[in-house]
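ok so heres the complex, two chains, lmk if somethin looks off
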Amino acid sequence: MTKIILNGREVEADPKQPLIAACHEHASAVPMYCYHPGLSPVGSCRICQVEVKQGETPARVVVACRTPVVEGMVVNTEAPKAHEARRQCLEFLLKNHPLDCPICDKAGECDLQDYSFAEGQGEGRSVEPRRKLEKRKSLGDVIVLDQERCILCSRCVRFFEEVTKKPQLTVAGLGSRSVISTFADRPLEGNYQGNVADICPVGALTLQSFRFQARVWNLTKAPSTCGECSRGCSITVEVLRRQEVKRLRPRPNPAVNQFWMCDHGRFSFERFNAPGRLAGALLRGRTGLEAIDPADALDEIADLVRMHGAPLVVASPWLTQEEGERLRVLGGANHFLSPAPNTLKDDLLHTGDPCPNRRGLGALGFAPLAPAEALERLRAAPLALLVGERAVELLGAAALATLPSTLRLVVLDTHPLDAPAACIEIGVPDASERTGTWLNLDGHAGTLGIARSAPAGVAPLTRTLDELVRRTRGALAR
Amino acid sequence: MSATPLKREVYLLSRIDLPDSHTLSVYKANGGYQALEKVLTGGFTPAQVIQLVKDSGLRGRGGAGFSTGLKWSFMPDVAKDARPRYLAVNADESEPGTCKDRVLMEKDPHGLIEGILVACYAMRVKTAYVYVRGEYRLSYERVAAAVQEARAAGLIGQKILGTDFACDIWMHKGAGAYICGEETGLMESLEGKRGHPRPKPPFPAGSGLWKSPTTVNNVETLCNVPFVITRGAEWFKSLGTPKSPGNILIGISGHVERPGVYELPLGISARSVLEECAGGVWKGRTLKAWIPGGSSTGLLPGAKIDVAMDHDSIREAGSMLGTGAMIMLDETACTVRAMQVISRFYDHESCGQCSQCREGTQWLAQIFARLERGQGRMEDIELLSSLANGMAPAKTICALADAAAIPTHAIVKNFRAELEEHVRLGRCPLGSAHEAAELEEAHA
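and the predicted structre for the whole thing:
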């Protein structure tokens, strides 16, 4: 580590990182557009200007993203000259900017807006006509480009060059006629397109699916973990008005996903918004499934365990460690559903394994079970517990409907199952509504965060399982 | 200006009037390739060649005027750095007003090649690239043909002149972008990428072409080198001024009787270039304004013509020597109109990476166009200065923003009255308003 003086305070800086990293680490909010910690620094936007003094040479204003850290350098991010340089830079950036913040999806989380507010000038001095360019250029199914808002920071260009290693975007045209473009207007391809909307510092690249869907200040955000594969990317779950999940975005985690996530994970949130949630509990009566109090449903399950002995447990691969620890006490044989690997595997993030907690459940003694095999085991069992969100989906409601009514099937899932074998059902929270831990393929713990509350009458699965364990303790004592 | 008259001697252009001056036989018959022979077979070590060039005081002729020998000495030691090394010859001459390298390439291409070979020997470079401006078709053909001729004669390739020195020269044609004449933009372009200048550091000598040690030299600079070798540092220093020795090719254009490229000692008075070489301002008119070194250097008032054409004197006069391309404007010319044209050039040629340059060059061009159209406001004059202050000095990756800001500062300082008159009258006082509108239309 190298010692530098930053805003009058001696701090330690990593000499392998540019000066801007040290500025950010020590809580000095140096603005940035072209710089992104996950991409190579190009030093083109010139907004991160700070004053640096080295040795006897007079202090000069430099771009922090292209300045190496040198022992003893004196850095002042708040020097009047640095402020002035940044103000000037902002004025140039806003010269042709359409200022259509009221209809821009980025408003509220826009770096151009935020830095302009922080240290820009109140009024523009330009009376020239603003640049007229394409405002809604589709770059494929995922991304839409507004060329007028673009400040040509080239983060998106470098993302494809450096992260996915498949260059797709470029700067076309020269000077003030420059625009971001794909080659020959081809649509973007691949499973990582959505990231460019995250790293775009302005509203130039936005998600087709998020377009005009929400004002970002109406979103509540919770740190969480993606469950679409065993990578377990760190994410933020963003919920509109505490109800509808609107967006999943990657959260920086150097050990797992750096700054990125795949589109498969990003757009998986629609599942959270599926209607028809199972709130409370159901019991099969004479006229079919009837609502009962969840506590009574738990008593019924305990009775079944006393009658039939330890049940066959088939858990969802989305079960957390905390849930698994409680559930394994109940089962005679414990399994988790392990669907075949999908074809999304790549050498960046996606592992192709749809079980986010394979490693953790394995460590708890749960054996992987292919869905087809699981159905066979269920067919032969007298009593089975099907536990966790997505368990029904992974086995298929239609397939479960063919199970004989000799099976007493207890279902703990987010949505009700209409199947003759299903005798008791209790609603559980989904991944946006509960907390817990998954272990990814490398053993890194990913925490689920509560982004919204579960439907009324739905208790955390850990609590439901605790209750069930308490009620069946005598029956299972062997 | 120096008190003693400057020694006049023509060497750079000494061969250009010979028939077939571009061929190997004529070049050799007139002293060609003697410098190469001298360094290769005369027991010169590469370090000695660099020292000789350093001693001569030769400064780069591409515009910045940096010491050539010093630049060469920045190349890392071959014993400690095994990477390939390159020389990139900047023949992308595109500074408005400048056409000196073109004369050398068309008329004396072997002079350039000899300079390249000596430079490569001095810097232990085995590969040189000549990056020729795309529009310079004849230059390209002449240098390419000369390279072929030299290769056939054993002057390029392996075992040059029977020694262990090996060097190859490759030709590259630019595609017409001004920014590719900036040394790092040139390297990006040579690598097959867009000509976006690279931030410095790293400097080319440390990490240039394909991240290897590279030196970029201007054509005229390299053409000086064989003469420095054969005639010596003392001879070279006997020409020009102590701080800017040697001759420089001065291209003079605009409202003069005999525009052209003239070889003159550095430190020559601008007035004598105008009056003796170019035959004075044309049509018996008076000089209103002049640009000393290409469009990136500031416009000076015509009264300031008694200035020596060397790096330091012109800086003192408030401008820059640049490429030594003098552009003369007579009393009928409008300086605002001149700035309209110049600022539009920089808007057109900015690569677009840096915010201040991309937006600033456009903004300046729009303001100058508005002023010339008669739609300017008094506050635009302050705005011009303020914008130029936001763009330069050294606020961007390369100096293109500076190149647009410097003449802007100059017109506000030197021709403020004319700017104000445009605003006051609501038109160009010289009546070229409609011409300006036409010009804008033509480029829309």
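quick notes: The longest helix of chain A spans residues 80-95. thats all i got rn
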